[in-house]
Amino acid sequence: MSTLPRIAWIGLGIMGSPMSENLIKAGYHVTGHTLEQDKLDRLTAAGGTAVGSIAEAVRDADVVITMVPASPQVEAIAYGPDGILAHARSGALLIDMSSITPQTSIDLAKAARDKGLRVLDAPVSGGEAGAVEAVLSIMVGGEQADFDAARPILEALGRTIVLCGPHGSGQTVKAANQLIVAVNIQACAEAVVFLEKSGVDLKAALDVLNGGLAGSTVLTRKKDNFLARDFRPGFRIDLHHKDMGIVTEAARTVGAALPVGAVVAQLVASLRAQGDGGLDHSALLRAVERLSGTEV
User: Fold this and answer.
1) Which DSSP string corresponds to 71-87?
2) Confidence of residue 19 (pLDDT cuts 50, 70, 90)
3) What is the rounded distance in angstroms from the CA atom of residue 17 to the CA atom of residue 48?
4) I want to staple 218 with a disulfide (CB 3.0 to 4.6 A). Which of 41, 113, 184, 212 is the partner?
5) pLDDT greater than 80 at residue 168
6) Is the dihedral angle over the CA atoms 121, 22, 220, 224 positive or is it negative?
């Protein structure tokens, strides 16, 4: 019998499915629940155990990991008579890897503590590719002892794993991450349109730019999307719109000015309003093209 902790995984979307599969590959027993039957079938095919309810998933788990879209979904799966807090065993560790508001994480940690559960907020960066390759950056908020206990699990999912402070700190750092990523993608998109309208070989230009100070992980990950106009979602505009709302509100709360971030947040919102919310966030290129008079 394995001595590794038993894991319950709630939320098997674009990120959750490959992440849970990486834990299975690392030898963990993973019991999963999500709303989509095809995702449950995928988990079973990978060697996990699919169940029909949160209660069944978490009942015998040592560690419960959640990866859902936003604060309302975290609250829905955590609270109430059918939620995690009602059915997880005392002493279990809840690791929420969703990207939500810092206050939601703080409130969850307090409510879980009252139920005898430990909590870490551990949002990630790296997108679908990072999840598949197990090279995510994981920013964690919570207690040092809980972080130390969770580290072997997190090391099966990511490459850069850092405890950033108390509960909510992981979400605060993730909000900053999303601000940087959005502004970076917007700058790359503007450069692409500028280069194309100037008649430059776009592939050659992006290759040389990425080898200099303008290079970034964002450009490395997204330049093929720009070149092929391939906007199949790795991280949807809808979700980045949600995250820009989080960082804007959090910055307002602490009194931090985000002049460039505020503009990019509006550009993300406008792209969503034009029906592109389901596309990858590299589709910010489409917004720049529209503004530049290019037919999209």
Assistant:
1) HHHHHHHHSSTTSHHHH
2) very high
3) 11
4) 184
5) yes
6) negative
Q: Which helix (H) or strand (E) is 237 found in, with range?
A: helix 237-254
- For residue 100, the model assigns a pLDDT of 96
Tell me phi and psi for residue 197, to 5 degrees: -70, -20
Q: CA-to-CA distance for 222 and 31, rounded, in angstroms?
A: 33
Q: Which long-range contacts (CB under 8 A, 24 or more apart) does 114-118 make?
A: 115/85, 115/86, 115/88, 115/90, 116/90, 116/91, 117/85, 117/88, 117/90, 117/91, 117/92, 117/93, 118/91, 118/92, 118/93, 118/94, 118/142, 118/143, 118/146
- The DSSP element (H or E) to which 144 belongs, if any, is helix 144-155
Burial 224-241 (b: 16+ CB within 10 A, else e): ebbeeeebebbbbbbbbb
Question: Is there a contact between 84 and 54 (Cβ–Cβ < 8 Å)?
Answer: yes
pTM for the structure as a whole: 0.92
DSSP state, residue 272: I
Q: Which two tokens stand for residue 245?
A: 């709302």
Cα-Cα end-to-end distance for the chain: 57
- What pLDDT score does 12 carry? 97
Buried b (16+ CB within 10 A) or exposed e, 172-188: bbbbbbbbebbbbbbbb
Q: Is residue 146 over pLDDT 80?
A: yes
Question: 57 phi and psi, to 5 degrees?
Answer: -70, -40
Torsion sign, CA atoms 261, 267, 268, 270: positive
In this prediction, residue 1 carries a pLDDT of: 57
Q: So which residues are the catalytic ones?
A: 174
Average pLDDT over residues 101-110: 97
195-213 average pLDDT score: 98
* Average pLDDT for 270-276: 96
Instruction: Report the DSSP beta bridge partners of residue 98.
Output: none
User: What is the C-alpha to C-alpha distance for residues 50 and 148, in angstroms, rounded to an integer?
Assistant: 28
